[in-house]
Write a structure and sequence with these properties.
The structure is a single chain. With 518 residues, the chain is an alpha/beta fold. The protein folds into 3 domains: 166 residues, Rossmann fold; 128 residues, TPP-binding domain (Rossmann fold, 3-Layer(aba) Sandwich), CATH 3.40.50.1220; 175 residues, Rossmann fold (3-Layer(aba) Sandwich), CATH 3.40.50. The protein is 37% helix and 17% strand. It contains 20 helices and 17 strands. The strands form 3 sheets. The chain has a 7-stranded mixed sheet, sandwiched between helices. Helix 12 packs parallel to helix 20.
Length: 518
Amino acid sequence: MNGARAVLSTLVHGGIDVCFTNPGTSEMHLVAAMVSTPEIRSILCLFEGVATGAADGYGRMAGRPASTLLHLGPGLGNGLANLHNARRAGTPLINMVGDHATYHKPFDAPLDSDIESMAGTVSAWVRRTERSADAGPDTAAAIQAARTPVGYLPGGVATLVLPSDVCWSGGAGAVPVPAAQPPSFDAAAVERIAKTLRENEGCLLLVGGGNARRAGLGAASRIAAATGADVLAEKSPARHERGAGIPRFDRLPYPRDLAADRLKAARHLVLAGTREPVSFFAYPGKPSTLIPSECEVHDLGAAPGALEYLADLVAPGTAPFVSDAGRPGLPSGALTAEKAAAVIGALLPEGAIVVDEAMTSDYWLPAATAGAPVHDWLNITGGSIGMGTPVATGAAVACPDRPVINLEADGSAMYTLQSLWTQSREGLDVTTVIFNNASYAILDSELRRVGAFQGADAQRSRSLIDIPGLDFVALANGMGVPATRAHTAEDFTRQLRAAVAEPGPHLIDAVVPPVRAS
């Protein structure tokens, strides 16, 4: 068995059956091994950022790693932005990067680079395989590393660098991969936090990670009902289970001042599966931390069951409060982001997976969809835009029986629009809604927040913000995805209803005015 076959066979032993690929010459033996390994579904992507983002979406929904196959250092470089988002989401992911043959490496060929250094910026684990005999064991180690919690995160990116001669040489073999063991929590530490909640006012519970699912949210609502503690969800949960019958909590706001104001009354902050909240960016004269100086922080950790145990300690017998069922009415007239949110809330299918990269257009979406049938909401975890269409692609591969709705800003969409081609090729049930305001509207609000431009310079800065002339219908059609354009709420209602009713990918170019965020 050559090294490539050992890698693929070990992936199969480890339960990894999907690989999102954009390979080159140095990966051809891995491609050949993939062709002869029917247990692994190889999905071609036209850009490495699509492959890495799709693996992120797959891992978030499947709860197990997907793999990627990238071409040398430049290919890894193209995929780094969405590997960054995967790292911040704690997504388990096997990131395979081909490299020059070991004996060719010293010649500094044109595509040669320091792959390990680049990979280290987004990976929890990095290893270069130097011998074909190590291909199987190193792959098994990568799988174990990807499934190992990293701090408050449930897993991480494991990057395996595979020189081409390691892949074509014989003497390799597949190895078994031990089953993953869930982490345990410190019961005594949870009991101390329970004492804090019982004895103090001004307690705030910040939930994230795995606790943004039904069980964790139910436990948080019981704690709030029994102790009077306030509850918030983190700004961008990797996977947030929502809808009628599930407890609803507001998320920490994005703007720094609004977030700080929301936390200002907290005297005891309990972190349940998330990190200490900080400002997304630095602003002149304002602190980076969002936690009041007089607030004490208590870390519950992210181990499964810790939050439920805390609820059992402080709220035995208390029932969770849940969101009522209810949908907004269908609006009429010229389309706006607010009206589009109402249409989405009115028509969202049961069991939908919503991928949200709507940016400034998403302000009304949480309220409009809170009473819709139960669904999952996937957020941009690392702030690196261009995640929406790839994550939706991977989520659709992971959950082929569930409709995926990708809510996408026009500027962000252009980073990884090649995802549409993969969606078409694979027949994925993804409906993409482009909030087309012909602007990087988020930058408009940020320019005002930082005070970088004044007077006439502020108007001239529009050249950095406005992006008119993008024809998303033509772009989608050119990649094999049927597309329509909506100018009115009635257009959007008709088109969204038709798109979610018909299998396969669709795109709606929803033309809306920019939202001038504060």
